[in-house]
Predict the structure of AAA family ATPase.
Amino acid sequence: MLTRLQVQGFKNLLDVDVEFGPFTCIAGANGMGKSNLFDAIEFLSYLATDSLTEAALRVRGLAGSKGGDPRDLFWDGYREHEHRIKIAAEMIVPAEVEDELGERARPAATYLRYEVLLSYESSRGEHSVGRLHLLREDLRQIPNARARLAFPAAAAFLDTVLIGEDRDRVFLSTDGGSGNERLINVHDHRNRVEKSRPAGRVVRTVLSTKITADDPTLLAARNEMRSWRRLALEPSALRTPDGTTGAESLATNGRHLPATLYRVAHGRDWSVEPDRVYARVAGRLSDLSGVAVEDLTVEFDEARELFTLFLRERGGLRLPARALSEGTLRFLALCVLLEDAEFTGLICMEEPENGIHPANLPAMVQLVRDLAVDPTDRPSDDNPFRQVIINTHSPGVVQLCDPGDLLLADLRLKAAPAGEAARALSLLPYRQSWRAKRGKPAFSMADVVAYLAEPPEAKLRLPPGLTA
């Protein structure tokens, strides 16, 4: 779970410091840079698995494209000045990890702070992009965890997710001068430097190299960051049947929906009652007005070796997934994720209201809210450790969110790297919420009037005395 993110120099995030709870809705007009925050989270996730350059080019799917350039990630990246990105993430990591060989281990602590500092060096060649340099990489335990964790949570929740002695442990650190003199250190369980790597020579983060349980805390941080994903459900992917050799987990674009539901319904050990799972998904899908669901199921065609999802309406009409509307498919995919206890981590979603009728906005907002872990109870298979961040410019979505879950996107003057003032993204909490800090900017109801009032030139209005 990502609990705090600090970003400097990434796109129009000149100086962003924001805290997150299980569910967060970011509201703001088009062009504010709300998606850039998701890009920063996505970039961190890629830094946990890929080389520095690959991570930069994967943001928004640029890897392998001819137009990709690492400078796209930097503030004013194509002007001649010093280019630096600093990102710090505070996170709660899993209390147990399993490496790719199946070995299990427990991290020394589960509340961690990870920091990276990157720079850009122009290419000497005429026809090639430059490269990124890792200037700093740190991973430390956050002491006094219960006091530091800001969002409201029950003791049972905290007892489950905050594991480890309350100490100031260091797992990765950086010291030395500049260039090849700078060292990234890996520490042992006594905080002593176990090994060091010259920062100037690395082409990827040290964290991304930790793939075994020999360093369980580093592996836990890596696995947690890998679980931060941007969900962009595409109708063509959602409509595609699955073969027998494909993945059994929903991809970020919606692929493998039938195989995922089949695996969730039948269980890996065949201990689940399929009819109950199908009935719960169908019941949740029935929250959409205009969708009269009698039942749904995933059927296997032995001749073609394909799994296909079918929905039967109350009138008896039987429809495959490819015949459903885009909005219905997106809602259905989230219903399936709600049932999938194996789908954990952070989910970022852009404008989940797209394709949803206004009358169905309450059902959609409640569904994405229910995807997030309930901090009033301990995480379990019935309360998966998931986190959800959405962004929107829809008045309907804003009105349906608890003010404490809202962040208001705004453009404010901040100091740019060259010293000049520039308009950059700020994320403001509601002034009476747990995120608000004394002396820090916050928003009041007066700042969100545009989301609460009808348009001034509305041609259709409810008659006086009649409410929706």
